[in-house]
């Protein structure tokens, strides 16, 4: 187990170094001068040059990359070019919205997926199964921003149960904030939940055909006990893989839904930063997202080993 | 009164191509302490017959006839009642030890499961009993092995674990479906001997299913030869090996490799393949592969006729089958 984790930690560090280089390189290639965008097209060459020097953008790229990385290691992200405030403040606020939103969405998806997937598998090819799989196909096909608008119309405008958008801030109390995040997470969870439900169903059905399930039945376990004790854990392995991928996608892909609900999350932050050519903010946010995605993969890999004892032996 | 009495058992499986008659009119009985061997090629219905006894046939399949265990018909039992019988009074060892154990549970937990389920043992008592069972089935160092996962054990050891699971609640009848087919030859004898010894010690009845006449001849009291889902010959093991009657039984025997045979001689085979269970021929199912078949075989199914007490054969041409030598029929 320790070898397994050590190997994974090394991979994680190597991936992060690679990711930071790619991110920096892409931002270098990206056309548009931050100083020019901040000052506007009418600014004099001198003013632009002065600002470029002030922002430190006249230094060679290798030097700037080095100071970015060493700054990161010391916990010093620097200031935003556009807003002149510490980048950490911008990221912190946004992350405290996006992270709970992603967690809520994935939690909702998992609950949806397990309930629907298990029910459908238990009623294989019966009316309930066919209906649920039809609905889940619909769930996968619907664009989440459109579903978000429908949810706003129903729950915010017609029923007036939940706010139509915006985020009050965590100081206003947890309950109000969770209420504000409920509709967006529902919009996100529908698609993810539908995907996971289908995978749960097919995985459970596949495991039900395994020889060891027959052994369990031959011991005298009921169908239900067999499902809980022998099928579920084996069936979870592929579900876990896709859950990890979907959670990563949620962390980085909430921008559209964030915009529909006017929530200032990481997606909105990075979009604004790109428009402002606030390259240093973009670099840091993207590296943060990359870190989160890699960490999620890392956790999923460790969970594999927890679920499936064969993996420890192979020390993958 | 027999312990297990199977009367006219038929199994019809639902397949994509239509209903398949996997077992037809199978009847046999088994007393306490007796061993019955069921022989036949792959696809002759022997495994399906075993699964029918356990009530574990695939979904949508239909079972007819009677399976009387101590005079009670298992086919009348509810699923909940069957759950109390399976693993408790009727137990089964399967062919594939590599895939028959759950990879995510320790072997100890898998042995303890029926003990806790049927005998209501506490966790610690079940663990003690599991250690004892592992010792009984010849797994060295049970204390170290009990917390192992199946992938950490060899095929032979896994089959020993399967046997420990099957024997855990001292069943009345043990069904062993090709228990050694997937194992090395050196291990095969050990496992068969183990099953024999344990069955004798506990006085249970054994149904040993195999395609290997050698295995059957050494380990059984009675034999049932199956072909195309039905019994073609049955009788005492000695009776049958004294006189192989049905052309199919003779073919099976001729197809066994023998020591001392000249190297240049080819192994004997029965021409053709097993019949399609969905479109079974109207008469004897062995007609197409039988060297002595005539028109009557094609059109009329032969009844099982006793040729001596307890020894019955289903063949229209008993006289000819008995007078011809096996080497003449299949060469």
From TrEMBL, chain A:
Q: Name one GO cellular component term.
A: plasma membrane
List, alphabetically, the InterPro entries matched. BPD_transp_1_N, MetI-like, MetI-like_sf
Entry annotated with the keyword Cell membrane = yes
**TM segment ranges:** 9-30, 94-121, 142-161, 173-197, 235-257, 285-307
A GO molecular-function descriptor = dipeptide transmembrane transporter activity
Keyword vocabulary terms for this entry = Cell membrane, Membrane, Transmembrane, Transmembrane helix, Transport
User: Which coarse location class describes where this protein primarily resides?
Assistant: membrane
Q: What residues does the ABC transmembrane type-1 domain cover? A: 95-304
The answer to whether keyword Cell membrane applies is yes
Query: CDD domains this protein is in?
Result: TM_PBP2 (cd06261)
Cellular location of this protein? Cell membrane
Q: Which domain of life is it from?
A: Bacteria
The way it spans or sits in the membrane comes to:
Multi-pass membrane protein
PROSITE patterns membership: ABC_TM1
Q: Which family does the similarity line name? A: Belongs to the binding-protein-dependent transport system permease family.
Put simply, this protein is called: ABC transporter permease subunit
Q: Which organism is it from?
A: Sneathiella chungangensis
From TrEMBL, chain B:
Q: PROSITE patterns from the xrefs?
A: ABC_TRANSPORTER_1, ABC_TRANSPORTER_2
The Gene Ontology biological process annotation of the record reads: peptide transport; transmembrane transport
Q: How does it sit in the membrane?
A: Peripheral membrane protein
Gene Ontology cellular-component annotations: plasma membrane
The record's Gene3D superfamilies line, in alphabetical order, gives: P-loop containing nucleotide triphosphate hydrolases
Please report the stretch or stretches of sequence annotated as the ABC transporter domain.
4-253
Highest taxon listed in the record's lineage: Bacteria
Q: Tell me where in or outside the cell this protein is found.
A: Cell inner membrane
Keyword annotations: ATP-binding, Cell membrane, Membrane, Nucleotide-binding, Transport
Note the Pfam families from the entry: ABC_tran, oligo_HPY
Kindly give the SMART domains that the UniProt entry links to this protein: AAA
InterPro entries documented for this protein: AAA+_ATPase, ABC_Ni/Peptide_Import, ABC_transporter-like_ATP-bd, ABC_transporter-like_CS, Oligopep_ABC_C, P-loop_NTPase
Listed GO MF terms:
ATP binding; ATP hydrolysis activity
Q: What is its main location?
A: membrane
Q: Which family does it belong to?
A: Belongs to the ABC transporter superfamily.
UniProt-recorded name of the protein = ATP-binding cassette domain-containing protein
């Amino acid at each position: 187990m320790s070898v397994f984790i050590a190997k994974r930690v090394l991979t994680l560090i190597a991936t992060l170094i690679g990711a930071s280089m790619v991110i920096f390189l892409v931002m270098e290639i990206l056309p548009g001068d931050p100083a020019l965008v901040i000052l506007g097209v009418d600014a004099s060459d001198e003013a632009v040059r002065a600002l470029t020097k002030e922002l430190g953008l006249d230094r060679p790229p290798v030097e700037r990359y080095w100071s970015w990385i060493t700054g990161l290691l010391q916990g010093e992200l620097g200031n935003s070019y556009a807003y002149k405030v510490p980048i950490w403040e911008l990221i912190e606020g946004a992350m405290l919205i996006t992270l709970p939103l992603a967690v809520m969405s994935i939690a909702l998806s998992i609950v949806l997926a397990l309930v629907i997937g298990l029910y459908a598998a238990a009623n294989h090819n019966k009316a309930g199964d066919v209906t649920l799989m039809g609905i889940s196909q619909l769930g996968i096909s619907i664009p989440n921003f459109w579903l978000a608008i429908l949810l706003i119309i129903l729950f915010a405008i017609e029923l007036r149960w939940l706010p139509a958008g915006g985020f009050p801030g965590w100081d206003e109390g947890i309950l109000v904030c969770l209420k504000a995040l409920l509709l967006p997470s529902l919009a996100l969870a529908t698609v993810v939940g539908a995907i996971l439900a289908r995978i749960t169903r097919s995985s459970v059905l596949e495991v039900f055909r395994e020889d060891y399930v027959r052994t369990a039945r031959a011991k005298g376990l009921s169908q239900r006990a067999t499902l809980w004790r022998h099928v579920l854990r084996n069936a979870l392995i592929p579900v876990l893989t896709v859950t990890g991928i979907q959670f990563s996608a949620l962390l980085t892909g909430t921008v559209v839904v964030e915009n529909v609900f006017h929530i200032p999350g990481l997606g909105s932050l990075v979009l604004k930063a790109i428009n402002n050519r606030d390259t240093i903010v973009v670099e840091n946010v993207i590296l943060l997202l990359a870190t989160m995605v890699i960490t999620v993969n890392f956790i999923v890999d460790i969970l594999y080993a927890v679920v499936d004892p064969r993996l420890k032996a192979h020390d993958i | 009164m027999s312990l297990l009495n199977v009367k006219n058992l038929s199994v019809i499986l639902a397949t994509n191509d239509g209903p398949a008659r996997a077992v037809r009119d199978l009847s046999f009985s088994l007393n306490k302490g007796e061993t019955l061997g069921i022989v036949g090629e792959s696809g002759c219905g022997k495994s399906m017959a075993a699964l029918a006894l356990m009530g574990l046939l695939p979904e949508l399949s239909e079972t007819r006839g009677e399976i009387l265990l101590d005079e009670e018909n298992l086919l009348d039992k509810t699923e909940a009642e069957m759950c109390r019988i399976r693993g408790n009074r009727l137990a089964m060892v399967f062919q594939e030890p590599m895939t028959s154990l759950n990879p995510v549970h320790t072997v100890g937990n898998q042995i303890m499961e029926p003990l806790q389920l049927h005998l209501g043992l506490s966790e610690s008592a079940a663990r003690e009993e599991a250690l004892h069972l592992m010792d009984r089935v010849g797994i060295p160092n049970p204390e170290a092995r009990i917390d192992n996962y199946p992938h950490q054990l060899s095929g032979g050891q896994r089959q020993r674990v399967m046997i420990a699971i099957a024997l855990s609640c001292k069943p009345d009848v043990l069904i062993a479906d090709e228990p050694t087919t997937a194992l090395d030859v050196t291990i095969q004898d050990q496992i068969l001997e183990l099953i024999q010894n344990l069955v004798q010690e506990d006085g249970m009845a054994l149904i040993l299913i195999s395609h290997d006449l050698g295995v059957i001849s050494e380990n059984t009291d009675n034999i049932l030869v199956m072909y195309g889902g039905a019994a073609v010959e049955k009788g005492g093991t000695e009776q049958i090996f004294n006189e192989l009657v049905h052309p199919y039984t003779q073919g099976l025997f001729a197809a066994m490799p023998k020591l001392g045979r000249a190297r240049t001689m080819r192994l004997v085979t029965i021409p053709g393949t097993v019949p399609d269970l969905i479109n079974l021929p109207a008469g004897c199912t062995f007609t197409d592969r039988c060297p002595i078949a005539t028109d009557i075989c094609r059109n009329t199914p032969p009844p099982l006729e006793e040729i001596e007490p307890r020894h019955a054969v289903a063949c229209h041409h008993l006289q000819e089958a008995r007078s011809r030598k096996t080497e003449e029929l299949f060469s």
